[in-house]
Amino acid sequence: MTCPQLCTLSSMPGISCFYRHIAGFSGSTTPGLTHTTCVIVPTLNAAKDWPLFAPALLACVQPEQVLIVDSESTDGTPDLARAAGFHVHTIERSGFNHGGTRQMAAGLVPDAEILIYMTQDAVLSGPDVLRSLLAVFADPQVAAACGRQLPRHGATAIEAHARIFNYPAISETRTLESRARLGVKAAFLSNSLAAYRRSALMQVGHFPANVIFGEDMVTAARLLLAGYKVSYVAEAGIYHSHAYTMTQEFKRHFDIGVLHSRERWLLDEFGGAGGEGKRFVLSELNYLRKHDPWQIPSALMRTAIKLLGYRLGRKEAHLSPSVKRHLSLYSKYWTQPPQA
Questions:
Q1: Is 65 left (phi over 0), alpha (psi -120 to 50) or beta?
Q2: Which residues contact residue 166 at a Cβ distance below 8 angstroms, ignoring those fewer than 6 apart?
Q3: Do 18 and 95 have their domain in common?
Q4: Same domain, yes or no: 227 and 288
Q5: What SS3 class is residue 319?
Q6: pLDDT, averaged in runs of 10, over the chain (340 residues)
Q7: Cα(217)–Cα(207) distance, rounded to whole angstroms?
Q8: Global pTM?
Q9: How far does Cα 239 stand from its chain's mean position?
Q10: Are 209 and 103 a contacting pair, CB within 8 Å?
Q11: β-pairing, 37-43 with 66-70?
Q12: In terms of residue numbers, what domain contains 291?
Protein backbone atom coordinates (compact mmCIF):
# COMPACT_ATOMS: atom_id res chain seq x y z
CA MET A 1 0.00 0.00 0.00
CA THR A 2 1.41 3.35 -0.95
CA CYS A 3 1.19 6.18 1.54
CA PRO A 4 -1.74 8.51 0.88
CA GLN A 5 -1.16 12.01 -0.37
CA LEU A 6 -4.09 14.09 0.76
CA CYS A 7 -5.36 17.40 -0.56
CA THR A 8 -8.51 19.43 0.03
CA LEU A 9 -11.05 19.89 -2.74
CA SER A 10 -12.00 23.50 -3.14
CA SER A 11 -15.53 22.48 -4.10
CA MET A 12 -16.02 20.31 -1.04
CA PRO A 13 -14.11 21.45 2.06
CA GLY A 14 -12.68 18.69 4.19
CA ILE A 15 -12.80 15.82 1.71
CA SER A 16 -9.46 14.43 0.64
CA CYS A 17 -8.37 13.47 -2.83
CA PHE A 18 -7.98 9.74 -3.19
CA TYR A 19 -4.36 9.01 -3.97
CA ARG A 20 -4.51 5.59 -2.33
CA HIS A 21 -4.84 2.52 -4.49
CA ILE A 22 -7.40 -0.18 -3.88
CA ALA A 23 -6.24 -2.25 -0.90
CA GLY A 24 -3.30 -4.43 -1.88
CA PHE A 25 -2.62 -2.74 -5.22
CA SER A 26 0.63 -1.24 -6.35
CA GLY A 27 2.09 -0.51 -9.74
CA SER A 28 4.75 -3.17 -9.18
CA THR A 29 2.30 -6.03 -8.63
CA THR A 30 -0.40 -5.12 -11.13
CA PRO A 31 0.99 -3.58 -14.33
CA GLY A 32 -0.90 -0.54 -15.54
CA LEU A 33 -2.73 0.07 -12.24
CA THR A 34 -0.81 3.11 -11.14
CA HIS A 35 -3.88 5.34 -11.31
CA THR A 36 -5.67 6.90 -8.39
CA THR A 37 -8.98 5.25 -7.60
CA CYS A 38 -12.09 6.02 -5.59
CA VAL A 39 -15.45 4.37 -4.92
CA ILE A 40 -18.61 6.47 -5.32
CA VAL A 41 -21.94 5.31 -3.89
CA PRO A 42 -25.21 7.27 -4.23
CA THR A 43 -27.46 6.53 -1.24
CA LEU A 44 -31.00 7.11 -0.08
CA ASN A 45 -32.09 5.59 3.24
CA ALA A 46 -29.49 2.85 3.08
CA ALA A 47 -29.56 1.88 6.76
CA LYS A 48 -31.31 -1.41 6.01
CA ASP A 49 -28.57 -2.32 3.52
CA TRP A 50 -25.68 -1.16 5.70
CA PRO A 51 -25.01 -4.32 7.77
CA LEU A 52 -24.13 -6.25 4.60
CA PHE A 53 -22.96 -3.45 2.32
CA ALA A 54 -20.40 -1.65 4.51
CA PRO A 55 -18.35 -4.58 5.90
CA ALA A 56 -18.01 -6.12 2.45
CA LEU A 57 -16.81 -2.81 1.01
CA LEU A 58 -14.38 -2.20 3.87
CA ALA A 59 -12.86 -5.62 3.24
CA CYS A 60 -11.76 -4.30 -0.18
CA VAL A 61 -10.84 -0.64 0.39
CA GLN A 62 -9.66 1.85 2.95
CA PRO A 63 -12.58 3.97 4.22
CA GLU A 64 -11.06 7.23 2.99
CA GLN A 65 -11.32 5.87 -0.56
CA VAL A 66 -15.13 5.96 -0.43
CA LEU A 67 -17.41 8.89 -1.26
CA ILE A 68 -21.07 8.60 -0.26
CA VAL A 69 -23.44 10.92 -2.15
CA ASP A 70 -26.54 10.99 -0.01
CA SER A 71 -29.97 12.27 -1.08
CA GLU A 72 -31.20 13.64 2.26
CA SER A 73 -31.68 10.26 3.94
CA THR A 74 -33.90 10.26 7.02
CA ASP A 75 -32.74 6.94 8.51
CA GLY A 76 -29.26 7.95 9.67
CA THR A 77 -27.36 6.84 6.56
CA PRO A 78 -24.93 9.82 6.63
CA ASP A 79 -24.07 9.10 10.28
CA LEU A 80 -23.45 5.44 9.49
CA ALA A 81 -21.21 6.43 6.59
CA ARG A 82 -19.17 8.89 8.67
CA ALA A 83 -18.83 6.33 11.46
CA ALA A 84 -17.36 3.93 8.90
CA GLY A 85 -14.81 6.58 7.90
CA PHE A 86 -16.38 7.34 4.53
CA HIS A 87 -16.62 10.84 3.08
CA VAL A 88 -20.19 12.11 2.76
CA HIS A 89 -21.61 14.70 0.39
CA THR A 90 -25.32 15.55 0.67
CA ILE A 91 -27.53 16.63 -2.21
CA GLU A 92 -31.21 17.56 -2.36
CA ARG A 93 -33.35 14.50 -2.89
CA SER A 94 -35.29 16.26 -5.63
CA GLY A 95 -32.07 16.91 -7.52
CA PHE A 96 -30.97 13.28 -7.86
CA ASN A 97 -30.48 12.07 -11.42
CA HIS A 98 -28.88 8.76 -12.34
CA GLY A 99 -26.41 10.28 -14.77
CA GLY A 100 -26.12 13.84 -13.53
CA THR A 101 -25.51 12.92 -9.89
CA ARG A 102 -22.80 10.42 -10.77
CA GLN A 103 -21.08 13.00 -12.95
CA MET A 104 -21.30 15.60 -10.19
CA ALA A 105 -19.66 13.11 -7.83
CA ALA A 106 -16.82 12.55 -10.28
CA GLY A 107 -16.15 16.27 -10.15
CA LEU A 108 -15.66 16.07 -6.38
CA VAL A 109 -12.68 13.75 -6.81
CA PRO A 110 -10.83 15.28 -9.77
CA ASP A 111 -7.59 13.38 -9.11
CA ALA A 112 -9.16 9.93 -9.32
CA GLU A 113 -8.43 8.41 -12.72
CA ILE A 114 -10.43 5.23 -12.13
CA LEU A 115 -13.95 5.85 -10.79
CA ILE A 116 -15.76 2.86 -9.27
CA TYR A 117 -19.53 3.22 -8.89
CA MET A 118 -21.71 1.01 -6.73
CA THR A 119 -25.29 1.00 -5.51
CA GLN A 120 -26.14 0.80 -1.84
CA ASP A 121 -27.74 -2.65 -2.12
CA ALA A 122 -24.80 -4.31 -3.90
CA VAL A 123 -22.73 -6.54 -1.62
CA LEU A 124 -19.20 -7.39 -2.73
CA SER A 125 -18.76 -11.18 -2.71
CA GLY A 126 -15.18 -11.22 -1.44
CA PRO A 127 -12.06 -9.17 -0.63
CA ASP A 128 -10.58 -9.52 -4.13
CA VAL A 129 -13.60 -8.30 -6.09
CA LEU A 130 -12.27 -4.81 -6.82
CA ARG A 131 -8.80 -6.17 -7.54
CA SER A 132 -10.35 -8.38 -10.23
CA LEU A 133 -12.45 -5.54 -11.62
CA LEU A 134 -9.52 -3.16 -11.92
CA ALA A 135 -7.12 -5.68 -13.44
CA VAL A 136 -8.68 -5.22 -16.91
CA PHE A 137 -7.56 -1.58 -16.92
CA ALA A 138 -4.00 -2.80 -17.51
CA ASP A 139 -5.16 -2.61 -21.14
CA PRO A 140 -5.16 1.13 -21.89
CA GLN A 141 -8.01 0.67 -24.39
CA VAL A 142 -10.40 -0.60 -21.71
CA ALA A 143 -12.51 2.40 -20.69
CA ALA A 144 -15.13 0.72 -18.50
CA ALA A 145 -15.80 -2.57 -16.77
CA CYS A 146 -18.59 -4.07 -14.72
CA GLY A 147 -18.86 -7.03 -12.39
CA ARG A 148 -21.06 -10.09 -12.23
CA GLN A 149 -24.33 -9.84 -10.33
CA LEU A 150 -25.25 -12.89 -8.26
CA PRO A 151 -28.65 -13.68 -6.73
CA ARG A 152 -28.98 -12.44 -3.17
CA HIS A 153 -29.54 -14.90 -0.34
CA GLY A 154 -33.17 -16.00 -0.37
CA ALA A 155 -33.78 -14.96 -3.99
CA THR A 156 -36.81 -16.42 -5.72
CA ALA A 157 -36.28 -18.70 -8.71
CA ILE A 158 -37.49 -15.96 -11.07
CA GLU A 159 -35.09 -13.49 -9.46
CA ALA A 160 -32.18 -15.95 -9.53
CA HIS A 161 -32.65 -16.87 -13.17
CA ALA A 162 -32.52 -13.23 -14.26
CA ARG A 163 -29.05 -12.95 -12.75
CA ILE A 164 -27.84 -16.30 -14.06
CA PHE A 165 -29.00 -15.49 -17.60
CA ASN A 166 -27.77 -11.88 -17.79
CA TYR A 167 -24.50 -12.35 -15.89
CA PRO A 168 -22.73 -15.50 -17.09
CA ALA A 169 -19.66 -17.07 -15.49
CA ILE A 170 -17.38 -16.22 -18.42
CA SER A 171 -15.66 -12.83 -18.68
CA GLU A 172 -15.70 -10.91 -21.94
CA THR A 173 -14.19 -7.76 -23.40
CA ARG A 174 -16.30 -6.10 -26.07
CA THR A 175 -15.47 -3.69 -28.88
CA LEU A 176 -17.65 -1.90 -31.41
CA GLU A 177 -17.36 -4.96 -33.66
CA SER A 178 -19.21 -6.94 -30.97
CA ARG A 179 -22.48 -5.25 -31.99
CA ALA A 180 -22.68 -7.52 -35.04
CA ARG A 181 -23.03 -10.48 -32.68
CA LEU A 182 -24.68 -8.94 -29.62
CA GLY A 183 -26.66 -5.99 -30.91
CA VAL A 184 -27.41 -3.42 -28.21
CA LYS A 185 -26.21 -5.88 -25.54
CA ALA A 186 -22.68 -5.06 -26.66
CA ALA A 187 -23.14 -1.88 -24.63
CA PHE A 188 -24.52 -3.66 -21.57
CA LEU A 189 -23.06 -2.31 -18.34
CA SER A 190 -24.39 -1.96 -14.80
CA ASN A 191 -23.50 0.73 -12.29
CA SER A 192 -24.36 -1.64 -9.44
CA LEU A 193 -20.63 -2.29 -9.78
CA ALA A 194 -18.81 -0.55 -12.60
CA ALA A 195 -15.49 1.20 -13.06
CA TYR A 196 -14.62 3.91 -15.58
CA ARG A 197 -11.41 5.48 -16.84
CA ARG A 198 -11.92 9.20 -16.23
CA SER A 199 -9.98 10.34 -19.29
CA ALA A 200 -12.18 8.23 -21.57
CA LEU A 201 -15.32 9.32 -19.75
CA MET A 202 -14.39 12.96 -20.33
CA GLN A 203 -13.73 12.29 -24.00
CA VAL A 204 -17.29 11.07 -24.59
CA GLY A 205 -18.94 13.87 -22.64
CA HIS A 206 -19.26 12.24 -19.22
CA PHE A 207 -22.46 10.54 -18.08
CA PRO A 208 -25.68 11.70 -19.77
CA ALA A 209 -27.43 14.20 -17.51
CA ASN A 210 -31.05 13.73 -18.55
CA VAL A 211 -31.75 10.02 -19.08
CA ILE A 212 -34.47 8.38 -17.00
CA PHE A 213 -31.98 5.62 -16.15
CA GLY A 214 -29.56 3.46 -18.12
CA GLU A 215 -26.80 6.04 -17.86
CA ASP A 216 -24.37 3.12 -17.67
CA MET A 217 -25.46 1.61 -21.00
CA VAL A 218 -25.57 4.99 -22.74
CA THR A 219 -22.04 5.74 -21.55
CA ALA A 220 -20.76 2.30 -22.57
CA ALA A 221 -22.25 2.77 -26.04
CA ARG A 222 -20.52 6.13 -26.40
CA LEU A 223 -17.22 4.60 -25.32
CA LEU A 224 -17.53 1.78 -27.86
CA LEU A 225 -18.34 4.26 -30.62
CA ALA A 226 -15.24 6.23 -29.62
CA GLY A 227 -13.09 3.13 -30.20
CA TYR A 228 -12.66 1.97 -26.61
CA LYS A 229 -13.25 -1.46 -25.11
CA VAL A 230 -15.76 -2.37 -22.40
CA SER A 231 -15.20 -5.40 -20.16
CA TYR A 232 -17.50 -7.73 -18.25
CA VAL A 233 -15.54 -9.27 -15.37
CA ALA A 234 -17.21 -12.43 -14.09
CA GLU A 235 -14.62 -12.80 -11.33
CA ALA A 236 -15.82 -9.52 -9.77
CA GLY A 237 -19.01 -10.78 -8.17
CA ILE A 238 -21.61 -8.88 -6.17
CA TYR A 239 -24.79 -10.09 -4.54
CA HIS A 240 -27.48 -7.93 -6.09
CA SER A 241 -30.96 -8.90 -7.21
CA HIS A 242 -34.53 -7.73 -6.75
CA ALA A 243 -37.85 -9.48 -6.19
CA TYR A 244 -39.87 -7.08 -8.32
CA THR A 245 -43.63 -7.11 -8.07
CA MET A 246 -45.55 -7.26 -11.34
CA THR A 247 -46.29 -3.56 -11.04
CA GLN A 248 -42.58 -2.83 -10.62
CA GLU A 249 -41.75 -5.04 -13.62
CA PHE A 250 -44.21 -3.04 -15.73
CA LYS A 251 -42.81 0.29 -14.56
CA ARG A 252 -39.18 -0.73 -15.02
CA HIS A 253 -39.82 -1.86 -18.58
CA PHE A 254 -41.85 1.28 -19.27
CA ASP A 255 -38.71 3.22 -18.34
CA ILE A 256 -36.57 1.03 -20.61
CA GLY A 257 -38.96 1.89 -23.42
CA VAL A 258 -38.63 5.58 -22.56
CA LEU A 259 -34.84 5.26 -22.67
CA HIS A 260 -34.96 3.64 -26.11
CA SER A 261 -37.45 6.25 -27.32
CA ARG A 262 -35.41 9.22 -26.17
CA GLU A 263 -32.00 7.73 -26.99
CA ARG A 264 -32.98 6.27 -30.34
CA TRP A 265 -29.41 6.34 -31.54
CA LEU A 266 -28.72 3.34 -29.28
CA LEU A 267 -30.86 1.06 -31.43
CA ASP A 268 -29.89 2.84 -34.63
CA GLU A 269 -26.17 2.30 -33.95
CA PHE A 270 -26.30 -1.10 -32.26
CA GLY A 271 -29.53 -2.70 -33.41
CA GLY A 272 -31.86 -4.73 -31.21
CA ALA A 273 -30.93 -7.51 -28.84
CA GLY A 274 -30.93 -10.17 -31.54
CA GLY A 275 -33.72 -12.36 -30.18
CA GLU A 276 -32.46 -12.06 -26.63
CA GLY A 277 -35.99 -11.66 -25.26
CA LYS A 278 -37.11 -14.98 -26.71
CA ARG A 279 -33.99 -16.74 -25.46
CA PHE A 280 -34.58 -15.29 -22.00
CA VAL A 281 -38.17 -16.53 -21.84
CA LEU A 282 -37.26 -20.04 -22.99
CA SER A 283 -34.34 -20.18 -20.58
CA GLU A 284 -36.53 -18.94 -17.73
CA LEU A 285 -39.22 -21.53 -18.36
CA ASN A 286 -36.64 -24.31 -18.46
CA TYR A 287 -35.05 -23.06 -15.24
CA LEU A 288 -38.38 -22.81 -13.45
CA ARG A 289 -39.43 -26.26 -14.65
CA LYS A 290 -36.42 -27.65 -12.78
CA HIS A 291 -36.40 -25.39 -9.72
CA ASP A 292 -39.89 -23.99 -9.06
CA PRO A 293 -42.54 -25.02 -11.59
CA TRP A 294 -45.29 -23.32 -9.60
CA GLN A 295 -43.77 -19.99 -10.68
CA ILE A 296 -44.24 -20.65 -14.41
CA PRO A 297 -47.67 -18.95 -14.62
CA SER A 298 -46.25 -15.91 -12.83
CA ALA A 299 -43.29 -15.82 -15.22
CA LEU A 300 -45.58 -15.89 -18.25
CA MET A 301 -47.69 -13.07 -16.84
CA ARG A 302 -44.56 -11.07 -16.13
CA THR A 303 -43.38 -11.55 -19.70
CA ALA A 304 -46.62 -10.05 -21.02
CA ILE A 305 -46.46 -7.20 -18.51
CA LYS A 306 -42.86 -6.37 -19.40
CA LEU A 307 -43.70 -6.28 -23.11
CA LEU A 308 -46.70 -4.03 -22.52
CA GLY A 309 -44.68 -1.68 -20.33
CA TYR A 310 -41.86 -1.49 -22.86
CA ARG A 311 -44.16 -0.77 -25.78
CA LEU A 312 -45.95 1.97 -23.87
CA GLY A 313 -42.58 3.45 -22.97
CA ARG A 314 -41.59 3.56 -26.61
CA LYS A 315 -44.78 5.58 -27.24
CA GLU A 316 -44.25 7.94 -24.28
CA ALA A 317 -44.26 11.00 -26.52
CA HIS A 318 -48.02 10.51 -26.92
CA LEU A 319 -48.68 10.36 -23.17
CA SER A 320 -49.24 13.24 -20.76
CA PRO A 321 -46.64 13.95 -18.04
CA SER A 322 -49.11 12.94 -15.31
CA VAL A 323 -49.73 9.57 -16.98
CA LYS A 324 -46.00 9.00 -17.42
CA ARG A 325 -45.38 9.73 -13.73
CA HIS A 326 -47.84 7.01 -12.79
CA LEU A 327 -46.40 4.49 -15.25
CA SER A 328 -42.75 5.09 -14.37
CA LEU A 329 -40.61 3.49 -11.68
CA TYR A 330 -38.66 6.78 -11.50
CA SER A 331 -41.65 9.09 -11.23
CA LYS A 332 -39.61 12.08 -10.00
CA TYR A 333 -37.81 12.15 -13.33
CA TRP A 334 -40.91 13.65 -14.92
CA THR A 335 -40.91 16.65 -12.59
CA GLN A 336 -37.20 17.50 -12.78
CA PRO A 337 -35.98 20.38 -14.93
CA PRO A 338 -33.48 19.36 -17.62
CA GLN A 339 -29.90 19.34 -16.36
CA ALA A 340 -27.08 20.94 -18.23
A1: alpha
A2: 149, 188
A3: yes
A4: no
A5: coil
A6: 30 36 36 63 97 96 94 97 97 92 94 96 96 96 98 96 96 97 94 96 93 95 98 98 95 96 95 84 98 97 97 96 95 79
A7: 10
A8: 0.88
A9: 13
A10: yes
A11: parallel
A12: 265-335
